[in-house]
Amino acid sequence: MGTRIHFYHNTPDRLALVGELVGRALERGRKAAVRFPDGTMLKRFDQLLWTREPQSFTPHVAVDSPLAGETPIVLAEAGTATPWPHTDMLLNLADDIPPGFEHFRLLIEIVGQTEADKAPARARWGHYRQCGLELKAFDSVMRAPL
């Protein structure tokens, strides 16, 4: 059985949804890798995790941190050559197909509401389907379980 792929489409606030999903993953003892299109979005997400309620702290580091292997949430910018330290789940916010996605149990694609978000997501959907992978789509407003 290959990587399961979940597409969360129609997402009004992609970073808020990723924050919710990694929080739920952490509660369930899962590990998550989060891939961003650029450093600006990565920094915004890092700030979001630091400004949540204190009782919901989400331990996270950059993929190139010496602590990445023992930290449940690992962040990286697309194009980073450092390998992911774990392969439980990968959340992708970048427009391209994540290198090495097939090593993860679950790939979650977070798709916004604009055509600029939707067009590359359609191409990724087609690629994954062509690979014969199990695909599921969820309207992010409905917040389907992981």
Describe the protein.
- The chain has 146 residues and is of the alpha/beta class.
- Helices cover 29% and strands 26% of the residues.
- It has a seven-stranded parallel sheet with strand order 3-4-2-5-6-1-7, sandwiched between helices.
- The protein is globular, with a radius of gyration of 14 Å.
- It starts with a strand and ends in a 7-residue tail after the last strand.
- The model has no long low-confidence stretch (mean pLDDT 92).
List the topology elements.
Layout: E1 4-11, H1 14-27, E2 32-36, H2 39-50, E3 60-62, E4 73-77, E5 89-92, E6 106-112, H3 115-130, E7 134-139
Parallel strand pairs: 1-6, 1-7, 2-4, 2-5, 3-4, 5-6
Give a brief description.
This protein is of the alpha/beta class. It contains three helices and seven strands, in the order βαβαββββαβ.
The portion of residues assigned to helices is 25-40%
Largest sheet report:
7 strands, parallel
Spatial order of the strands forming the largest sheet: 3-4-2-5-6-1-7
Strand content: 25-35%
Q: Ends: how far apart?
A: 18 Å
What is the succession of H and E elements? EHEHEEEEHE
**Any low-confidence stretches, pLDDT <50, length ≥5?**
none
Tally of DSSP β-strands? 7
Rounded to the nearest angstrom, the radius of gyration is 14 Å
Quickly count the helices. Answer: 3
Shape: globular
Q: Helix/strand-derived class?
A: alpha/beta
Average predicted confidence as pLDDT: 92
